[in-house]
Structure formats: structure tokens, C-alpha cells
Amino acid sequence: MSLEKVLTAMVDSGKVPHAILLHENDGGGAFPLALHFLEHLYGQAGGRVAKLIHSDVHFIFPVVISGSSSASSVSVSEPFLGEFRALASLNPSFTEQELYSALGFEGKNPVIPVAEANALLRTLGMHSLEGGYTSVLVYLPERMNVAASNKLLKILEEPPAKTVFVLITHAPERLLPTIVSRCQLFRVQSQMQSIADTYDDGGQLASLMEALLSRDLGEALSEGEQIASLPSKQAAKAFCRYAAEKFRRVFLYQQGLGQIAGDDSQAREWAGRVNPKFPRKALEVLDRTIVRIDRNVNVKILFTDLVSRLYLNI
Predict the structure, then answer these.
(1) Are residues 9 and 125 in the same domain?
(2) Does pTM top 0.85 for this prediction?
């Protein structure tokens, strides 16, 4: 049964979970899937959900704000809803960067601040305007700051009646594990398979990991030199993205979330051998490496640094 049918069957059976977490690759189609679920939930009013104008459906997404706004209790997403609706109408499978471009946030660091969580608490304290469900769609909850994450967790621990949360994440490893544990989890597969299933790195990541797990720094650095000799910067970035997806799966297996990691025996094995903090640290290093490749930092130096940091955290 497709994930779309699973979600609509929940509504038909009357067994709607209070929180759903959709894990997608960037632009992987989770947003239109979430909308389809909410359209079905609201029945005859589903048409307004599709247009993102239903009064009981609230959208939260990362924005760039001033310092004073971050401390208020006013929704910081709401002023940008017009641009958000326009983008979602034209391209419901938008990517994170396409959203930031549409909102005018290119080159900045959007977040979901505690002000948004405070505004949400106030909204959920009122009855739904139409007497049915109140729903909240959070795009990229991993962009919440610590205070906002803690408030979201509190809401999920004691959700108001007839309230449904749909969270769309690209990086569940960056969420509080307690938030993840309070959601029903689904892995959204786009029409294209995950990069971890389609990219062929020639076994370089496996060789690097074996050297790291054997605590052989010399061999690990040698493997890093071979990776650094890939024919282009694009190839080097592709390797980093492939490794990042693998380490996300390692994290999910360590958290007992194999059902959304998929069937990956290699990631499952590594999950049992690496330090519990390793996946998060590795993802930080890989993200930083990709950014620095784009800034034309010497690739050999970058991969020497990457291997050294992985070695320290394995």
C-alpha cells in the first residue's frame, strides 16, 4: 500500500495520530503528501486546505527575523504566508533553497524561533474556528532553536484534543529524540531513489569506515587522499552527500528507527560499532566540507581535516 493510501486510511478508520513525522530528501514530495492527508482529514473543506487558506490549518516554516521579533509571542511565519502559498501552488515539491529564495532569504540562516512556539501555544489554546480538527504543518522542525524545540516537545507530550501535527524533516537526527519518539514516522521516497541507493562511490566510504573503526589513522588518511583525488568538485560534494545519507541511516538505526531508515545492512552494522555521538558529529563535518568546497578551499586539505575529525569521534 502506498504511503498516500496509508495516510488516508488512517482518516477513514478514525485512527488519526496526533503527530506524524514525514522524513524526505530535500524536495522529495512530503509537502504535497501532507496536504493530501489534510485535505482528506477536512473532508468537504479540503479544497481550502489545498489552497492553503483553511482557517484551522496553520503553517510554520523557517524565516529570518530581527532580535526583537525572536523574543515576542507573535507568529513570525504569518507575514510570509503569501509568498509561501505562491511557491507551494506553483511547485508543491519545493526544495529548502527554493523556499528561502521565494521568501528573500538567500545567503541567510532562517530559523524557527521560540516566538513561533509561543504563538502556536496561544492558537492551540483556542477552539478551532470551524469546530473540527486544528492542524499544524511544520516544515523543517530541525530549524527550531532549543527553546522552540522544548516548547514543541511539551505540546506533543500533552496535545490538545482534535489537534494534528504534521512535521516534514530533511534531518531527523537534528531533532530532539523525544520529539521523534512522540510522532508516527514515515520515510517518504521520491520518484528518484535515495542517493544512498543510487550513488556508486566505488567502496571508498566503506574502506574509510573500516580504517576508522580499526583505529588506523594512517590508513584512514590515505583513504581520504584517494577521495580528495576525485575528478571534480562536484564529485567530491556528491561523495559527501552520499556519506551524509549513510550516516543519517546510522543515526536512525541507533535510535531504533529502522523502519524509516530502510533496509541498509551496511548502515545497520556501523550503527552497532560507532560512538552514539558519531552520526551527528559526522554530519556537521560533512555539511561544513560541502560549504568549503563551494568556497574553493583546497579539497585535499578539506578531506584531511574531515578524516581527522571523523577519527576523533568514531
Answers:
(1) yes
(2) no
- The angle formed by the CA atoms of residues 221, 224 and 228, to the nearest 5 degrees, is 140
CA separation for the pair 150, 144 (Å, rounded):
9
Is residue 182 located within the same domain as residue 96? yes
Give the Cα separation of 199 and 283 in Å (integer).
Answer: 18
Please, are residues 300 and 251 in contact by the beta-carbon 8 Å criterion?
no
Neighbouring residues of 310: CB distance < 8 A, sequence distance ≥ 6: 208, 212, 220, 278, 281, 282, 285
Q: Which of 267, 305, 312 has its CA nearest to residue 288?
A: 305
Last residue in a domain, options 188, 211, 237: 188
Count structural domains, the chain.
Answer: 2
By DSSP bridging, strand 184-188 and strand 57-60 are: unpaired
Q: Are residues 160 and 288 in the same domain?
A: no
Give the 3-state secondary structure of residue 244. Answer: helix
In 3D, which of 286, 242, 243, 249 has the Cα closest to residue 271? 249
- Asked if residue 105 and residue 8 are part of one domain, the reply reads yes
State the CATH number of the domain containing residue 90: 3.40.50.300
pLDDT in tens, 61-87: 999 987 655 556 678 999 999 999 999
Q: Which of 67-71, 161-165, 305-309 has the lowest mean pLDDT?
A: 67-71
* Best CA proximity match to 97, nearest among 299, 248, 294: 294
Q: Where are the alpha helices (DSSP H) in 136-232?
A: 146-157, 177-181, 195-198, 204-213, 217-228
Q: Could you give the C-alpha distances from 59 to 55, 75, 159, 170, 309, in angstroms and in order?
A: 11, 10, 17, 17, 38
Do residue 294 and residue 174 come from a single domain?
no
Domain carrying residue 112: 3-188
